[in-house]
## 1
Amino acid sequence: MPAPSSGPAVAVVLVVLVVLVAVVLTRSLLRQRVALRAVRAELARAQRRERESRAPRTDPVTGLLSGAGFSAVVQDACRGPERAAAPVAVLHLDLDGFRALNRAHGRAAGDAVLVEVARRLRTAVRGADEPARLGGDEFAVLLADPDAAVDVAVRLLAVLSEPYEVGATRVRVGVAVGVAHSRVAGAGLLRAAEAAVGAAKAAGGGCVRVWDEAADRRHDRRVRTVERLRAAVHAPTGDNRLEVHHQPTVDVDAAVVTGTECLVRWVRDGVVVPPDEFVPLAEEHGLVADLGLVVLERAVAEAPVLHEAAGRALVVAVNVSASQLHDPRFLPAVERAVRALGEDRLVLEMTESVLVAEDEATTAALDAVVAAGAHLTVDDFGTGCATLAYLRRRPFSAFKVDRSYVRDLETDPRTRALVEGLVLLAATMGMGLVVEGVETPGQAHLLRRMGAPTHQGFRYARPAPVGEAARVVADLRDRLGAAARGGAADR
């Protein structure tokens, strides 16, 4: 009888051996991957430690601790062995008006002010305290005695608000101070102090705020608001976008619509946010230059619709901040806008703060935009600190009388005399004049009698998106024409 075949048994054994080898190899590979991940993690930690060790612990301008050095000192203080027995506090200081000072007087003057701020900090705090410059116009102090934090903050508020010598000029820089205690904020001490100074700035600056949970929530809301505004500027969506609203100007003598002022609005979740609520945020967080470019581009794109509605060439007026003048993208954008507008005229409206800026960069920027074909108007004239000498030296071709002068025009003889003086000033200097804030027939009649026929205000139209604004302009054109034919332009 033949012996049974051993082939199947051998095959089973081979399969088992193959499976065992595969299991062993798989486990080995898994161990190698785990080990590789651990090596990579350790390498990343080593690289991070190396970067941190290379980060300068001293600010090169002021000689104080740098932001990185201060963070390390605070972390050490919060993790120290006597943490429970010896709590600490952090003061976060934010200078107010420093950026404007830097623009007006130049970086060297700004650095000199920073050095003086550092000197005053060292003088005002005690030996155990650690002052630092976090960066830009932000400073901080680590206090060894948290119970004295508010007293120290108030003292610093007074010391840092004293005038600074900038060349032959004395300037003031405001300050806001946020206070946070480690016994309340714990490991989030630095963030808590930042939230507290945010609350102090929101209160108008020049004050001290101590961190609490409510302040933290307000700070978080402010951060979220800034991020949504940033998205509206750079990546708009249907429920989070910027719009340009147009408010016409009229010449009641010629009975025509002469132009429109292009005003930015933020539409957030179906609600129009007024500019006085978000433009300061844009200024504070470095968004105003980008926002200005968006508005300029949109104003130019929408101008043909309003031109057609008015039946004539228009002035397209766009508000510009001082910081935009120093943005390298601004002049090319102005040149493109002038070319695109054709027979419509681009007017850049700026407040008196630009007039009083004496640095060469501002002068060169103003001359360049005029050479590019834009016209310059002083906005809200009479509310700032400009003098006639500044007006004479700058290449502005017109100014706008602020609405605050118009409000009391019918009831206050002194206001009427001031406005008459401004009308005479414009005529004498050969400058254009626009009166804003005109709301009543009486105001319009008085201004026309004074020789100021170019008006802007709710009497004629409110700011509106381009579609609605075009309908308003067409209607205003018809009404002005009918009134002129009837000899009653102001009735």
## 2
Amino acid sequence: MTESVRDQLHAQITGALKGAAFPITKPEDLIAAFPMGAETTCQVGDVKMTAGEAGTLLNAGDFPFTSPESVADTILSRAGL
């Protein structure tokens, strides 16, 4: 059984943020936490998203984030995945 697109993207996002210092309290700090900043790209098949694009799905009420998993969960939920 193959992993779903959502599961694969979740793993990519959490992997990209594994070295970040949490909690992250501001959008700018979240983008900066990705290895290549806003240009960090996660892709599974035809589904592709940069950290900059993902950041547009978030709002001030989402912060602070306390773990890579919470960032991935919120982004993917907002993206409808």
## 3
Amino acid sequence: MKQFILLCLVGLLMASCSTVTRGTTNQIQVISNPSAAQVRTSIGNACTTPCTFEVSRKSEFIATISKEGHKPVDVPVKTRVAGAGAAGFAGNIVAGGIIGMGVDAATGATLEHYPNPINVSLEPNTPAVVNRSVRRNAKARKPKSSTS
């Protein structure tokens, strides 16, 4: 009976190859031109570029990169099965079995985010065009002087 329990514990420890080798989180790097832009994600992360933050491998989100004087950019970040994740998932056939496959699928350990790194060039805001005739009319008008 002790051998059976020991065997089960070893099986559980070896289960979920991708979870063990890749982990359940991923580092997302954000680079902007110009730098020092604010990054906010739809899942609550925030930083100033260039920066890196950590998210769950199974989370998809939108990163909004903004800087004063520039147009903000929204970047959807999706997930896909990574080559290394698929190999780890397949490794469960040898070591982890169905339990390992289930753990890898549930934790998202087989996934990676794209784009990663997020690299954006922020476009400067264009100054508002002032109607020249309005400017001329404003100059032509003289303020009324009050006499008492």
